[in-house]
Structures are given as C-alpha cells and as structure tokens.
Amino acid sequence: MTVPVLEIIGLNKGFPVKNGFGRTVDEVRAVDDVSFSIAKGEVYGLAGESGSGKSTIARMIMGLERPTSGDILIEGRNLGGGMAAAEKRKLVQMVFQNPGSSLNPRRTIGQSLRVPLEAMGLAGRKIDARIGELLDMVQLPANFAERFPHELSGGQKQRVAIARAIAVQPRLLVLDEPTSALDVSVQAKVIDLLVDLGRELELSYLFISHDLSLMRNFADRIGVLYRGRIVETGRSDAVFENPAHDYTRLLIASVPVVTAEEEAVRPKIPLIDGEIPTAEALLALREQERRNPTSE
Amino acid sequence: MSESLLSIRGLNVQFSAYGRSQQVLHDVSLDVPAHSQVALVGESGSGKTVTMKAIMGLLRDPPARILSGEIRYEGRDLLKLPPRERKKLNGTEMSMVFQDPMSSLNPVFTIADQLGTILKYADRRLGRSRSGRERMARVLEVLAQVRMRDPERVAASYPVMLSGGMRQRVLIAMALLSEPKLLIADEPGTALDVTTQAQILKLLKDLVADRGLALLMITHNLGVVRETSDYVYVMNKGVVVEHAPAAELFSAPREDYTRSLIAAVPRLTGGMRFGSAGARV
Ligand SMILES: Nc1ncnc2c1ncn2[C@@H]1O[C@H](COP(=O)(O)OP(=O)(O)OP(=O)(O)O)[C@@H](O)[C@H]1O
Ligand SMILES: Nc1ncnc2c1ncn2[C@@H]1O[C@H](COP(=O)(O)OP(=O)(O)OP(=O)(O)O)[C@@H](O)[C@H]1O
Ligand SMILES: [Mg+2]
Ligand SMILES: [Mg+2]
User: Which residue is closest in CA terms to ligand 2's atom 24?
Assistant: First the structure.
C-alpha cells in the first residue's frame, strides 16, 4: 500500500476566549476531531462555513499553529516528531488566503522569488532564468521581477505567491483560497497550471475554497466543514450530485451561478419566512423534525 | 435614468514611477444611480481598484495622476472639491470596503476599539454625539447585521484572532457604521462561504431597497453579479468595453471579451477540464 502524502488523524484545536481582564473564560473549538488523507497526485478540496476552521487546519499542517491534540503525518512521518523546518519546507508549501500580507513590501518580486531558489542551492544566472520561468508560468511579464508588491493588482500579487510556492517543487501544496482574488480567465489559467504541475511532479493539493463550482471541477475528493467538524466527505461528483448532509445541501443551494442549467441542479431548500435560511436555522428545523417526525 | 448619485465622465489616470509611466484608465465613464446596485467586472489589473480609489480620493500624486475627467457626486465634481471638504465625505456620505482586509485593520487594537473610533469621528464630522455605551451598542448591532455568530467575542478580538471571512465582514460592518449613501465594495464576498455571502448580499440589497443606498460592487464573481446587480460595467485594460443591465449582459453579451469571461466561469454542473491536456476553448 502506498503511503498518503498527507494524513490527518483526530486533529483538534481550541483557542482560549479571554475577558477584558485577560482571564480565560471560554474556548473556541476551531477544529474538532478532523481526520482525512490525501494521496499522491490527488486534489482534496476543503469547503465550509466562514470560521469553520479551514485556515487553522492549514496553519497546523504548516507548523504555524500547534494542535491541541491529534496527528499530522507527511509521507508517513509525524510532523510533531521534530522534522527540521528546512526539510518540511521542501515537502510542503502554502499559498495564503491574503495575497497582500504574504509578500515582503520592501522586496521586489524578483528578490522575493530569489529566496527559496537560493535555499535550494541555485546560484548566479540559473536563478534569474528560473525567476523568468516562474513568472512566465503564472503569466506575468518578466519585467515584473523589478516591481514592488504595492505596484501590483490583487490578482497579480496572488500569482507571485503561487510562483514562490512552486519554486521549490514541493510534494504538497496547501492552497488557501488561492484564486479568490483572480478574475475567472486568470483563475482558469492558474488552475490549468496547477493541474499540469500536479501531473508532471505528482504534486498533491489541499485546496481550500469558497468557490464550490470551481471545487467541483478541480478537486477529486472533498470534505465539508461546519463548526470545526467534517460533516460530509466523498468524491466530489458524488457529493455535488447527491449531497447527504443538510449543511452541504444548503451550501450548494446558495452558490451563485451564471446559467439556468446550473440553477436547475441546485438542491431545493425549505424556505424559512420566505427566504433561504441560515445554516443554524436550517439545522435547528431538521433537529425539530427529527424529534417530532409526525408534525408537518 | 434618474439623476445619478455618482457619475464618472472621461476619467484618465496614469502611473509614473522610476521613469516608467503607464496609463491605466482610459476614458472611463460610469453611473451609479441612488437605489441601485451596479457591478464593475473585468480581469485582474484592468483598473477596477484604481477607479474606486479615484472616486474615494485615495490616489496619491505621485505616482498616480488624474490626467482628465470628472467624478460627480450629487452633481458636484469631487476632483474640484477642496481637500478638506472632499475628506469630510469619506466615512460619512460614502464608504468603501477594501479588497484586502488585513491592510485595513490595525493589528494592535481590538475590533471594538477600531469600530468605536471610526464611529466617533464620523459622528463628530456630522455634528452628532453618542456616549461610549451607545457607540458600543451600535458596534455590536452592525456586527450582528453582518451575521457574526458571536458579536461580543468578535468585538473583543484582535484581527489575527478572526478568520478571513470574519475580517471581511468586519470591514463591511465598518463601512456601514455611519449609514453611508454610497458604498463602494471591492470584492466584498470572496472570503465568505456562499451561505454567509448570500446573507450579506441580502443585507446590502435590503439597504438599497429600504434606505436608498447606492452600491458599486467590484467583483470577479459573475454569479453574484447575475443574481444581485441591476447594471454591469465590463472593463478590460483600463477601458469600459461593455455596459448593460445584468439580465441582458448574461443573456446576450455583445463583446467577445464579455463572452470569454462568462465562458471561463466554472460551472456548478461540472464537466470542465483543466490542464493543457484538457485544453478548453
Ligand atoms: N489566533 C487565534 N486566536 C483566537 N481565535 C482564533 C485564532 N485563529 C482562529 N481563531 C478562531 O478559530 C475559528 C476558525 O478560524 P479559521 O481561520 O480556521 O476559519 P476558516 O474556516 O478559515 O474561515 P474563513 O473561510 O472565513 O477563512 C474562528 O472562530 C476564529 O475566530
Ligand atoms: N501604485 C501603483 N504604481 C504603478 N502601477 C500601479 C499602481 N497601482 C496599480 N497599478 C497598475 O494599475 C493597473 C490597474 O490596477 P488595479 O489595482 O486597478 O487592478 P484591478 O482591476 O483592481 O485588478 P484585480 O482584480 O487584480 O484587483 C495594474 O496594471 C497595476 O499593475
Ligand atoms: Mg480561512
Ligand atoms: Mg483590485
């Protein structure tokens, strides 16, 4: 049996909630007993509510946050077991949710891309050539190497972040809403690029996104998070065609679409007061129905 | 069309830095009537954010230069207004939601502090006053309006303690605090799950209908545009290439560019092939 590139087992993360005097009064269960794995070359999509713990999971994989409990294995090796930071960076890279804050404002784009390349042992003209290649891959002109982040539009910055992450050719790329700042045509090109790189280098992806239409088309399997827990998981076509959990149905029903055909496949959700309900209201309604199965 | 609340005519903007100069807006004209939701779409780098910064008076000269054009708000040309009067409008009459939440929030103050301070200054400019307690009540009210599950916790949090979508909603709350007439939002829904997004869009729609808010929304999400906007402007390389009522734009786009944008939207029905092997047309 082949070892998964990423395996997450029983992961938990709680954050303390403090009162005005700095005393801990409560806890936010940001991640609640989450388990899943990603095979070599596979795209695993993580969807779910805002605040449901997606970025926290990503940050724990990157070692930027310490789990309260649970295990994270990369190629079978436990991250908690003291893997050297440099070694880990070669295996796992991340593109953050927020393009603006992940680039150093005082470095030119070229200087930012140079850092990981030098760390890989490249030198001299090879670096410049590779920088040109990377910019080309993400469809930016070579002279962008001389620009500073503030001179770039939101989508241009995001492409630089992707170029920097693939520079070291990692095994797993964690993408936290990598294309939400991109227009659809650039997004399609970036996803094309990710798919090609995935095939060429057998890269695996953890793809976090609110764009469910994109997720259906890009991810092989998906997991749906609600309040820190995975409420549904499966092959993405199966989940989209037959969502089992009410929260998943609500999510798919809320996707804004551009054609009438898509409107027709959105699940029908019971309206509350004539409107699409909040997740809480819908789940409360279902709970009530389960308790009183006879009442209509 | 009724007299527009906001009306841009022939706007030309250029950036210059280190001897390079580049014109990024070419003769941009657009209208945002009161009681309406107008969308501005177009590819990355096409000049949407620059347009919005020009409206808000946030382009710095240098490097930016407004070569020519008018930006009329309630009939007055904002570009000719004395800086003091221009400033007075921001955060009171007109508000904006920035694309990048982290850069608009101060990491060392709690959300309650930041929203409270903004409200205080807005009140002062409008010659109103409120007690600290009343201000806090208004802050919690707006946080609840943007669908925060736990407004008290969010108010007491520092920005790093919030998820991306929560921060984005804080920015929307910030923009709504002083009940503006014109709201310009740069990608207000991208960091939100679709259910929360639908609720925020509904909130904005209600504000447009009930309070006469005019909304100019910049977005890459064409589904959102189709389902919520009245009128759409499509921009490409600094030029408005097509504008039409939303329903018309989606049923009968006139420009190839618009057609290619719509075609590139991934479909909820699946079947899109990515990668050079699947070569889409
Ligand atoms: N450093 C922190 N301190 C306290 N609470 C935190 C911290 N980081 C995250 N949280 C809380 O953990 C929860 C999950 O946040 P997370 O960023 O993982 O959500 P998310 O699923 O990525 O949401 P979004 O889709 O909005 O980005 C939220 O309630 C958030 O407020
Ligand atoms: N301070 C600046 N100096 C030089 N060029 C700039 C500056 N700010 C923006 N530009 C350029 O102006 C053009 C328009 O940028 P703008 O930010 O308006 O794009 P956008 O349409 O908002 O794109 P996105 O969808 O990616 O956010 C881009 O080519 C960008 O590189
Ligand atoms: Mg997140
Ligand atoms: Mg922009």
Answer: B44
